[in-house]
Amino acid sequence: MKKSLNFIPVIIALLALMLFAFAGCGDDGSTTVVTPGGATGPTGATGITGITGVTGVTGPVDLVDLTIDIWEGAAGGTRVSDPFRVTLVRTIGSAESEEIEVSDTTAEGQAVITDLPSEADYDITVVVFGRIPQTQHVKTVEATTSISSSQTNTQQTVNFENFGPNALGYACTGQGGSDSYLYLLDPNNPGNTNQIGFITAAEYYDSVSGMAFAPAADPNSAPTLYGVTGRDTGNSGMSLITIDPFTGKILTETLMSCSTANIYAIPDISFDSNGNLYGYMKMYGPDALGRINATTGAVTVVGNMAQNWSGAGIAFDPNDVLYHAGCNGNSNLGILDVTNANRTDVAMLTQDVHFTGGLDFYNGTLYGHENLLYTINTAVGNGTVTSLNGGIHYCSGIAFPK
Across residues 222-249, what is the average pLDDT? Predict the structure, then answer.
């Protein structure tokens, strides 16, 4: 018994060496760990004293990069070149949903969203300017365990295909004091009403009464969409607003100087090619044509009409000729002089339409809206009005990108 006790120190020393060796190396001789996002953790040289030269493998990676490609036709063909908006809404795997918006900031027809949690579900919606939105449900890739340390995280690509090549128009509701919503308006299929989003509530006469796009200064950016809200009953005020064409949200709001000009409503507005904004003014007295400062909201009446019109759509054609359509006993198309509001008749219209939903030109054709979308022949003496058999209920304004 006394002799066997002499071996105990040796056994303890051997066990200590073995434990130290196992602590310094894994099954593959590694100690490196990758933290979320791919950053490399302590190496063997600094993490374990006395052991040098250990390189190791990575541990699990739990973030992903999501690449979204947006195509005119099939994937791999022509990318969408118009501005777009990508919205991600987390739907599963989180106590609270999260929304991420990405504008066109990386490349034409592509958005890259970095550092998303893996093993998460998202509804991804892509809105291309003037196109019908698309939504896909996507589950990001699961975390993996054997990625080389040179990779910062895993990647996933989602294709959105077959966005039509033709940009569409926009319409808003607001007649009769109803809430205002923004819609896409397809002249080839006006009955297919695609609602984009809520603009404003009808409370205190805040409905949108007319819209127009300002000429785009940058072809790679969405042109600015303007609208007019309110009726100046009791000097409550009207506002000039800008509207996000991707969501319908109001971006800016500027009070207009309508009370001092004796104006109580502006049913339609239009920009000329130089960015000058004009509005048809319903007055406490004869109707008028006015010019609106798009920055300050200041209104200048350029002249009064010889008579008041029921319905008051106006629109500049590509040559900056300002057309007006309305009804005063008979529906009539005319041209307004922007310096004094003098009106020259073009033609009696073949249908009794007031165009309370406004006018606008698109690809050289004059469109008007009143319950239905119409085309109007602008040739002198013609005046043919053609229904396109569809439209937006309670439409109060239409606008096509310039």
Answer: 85
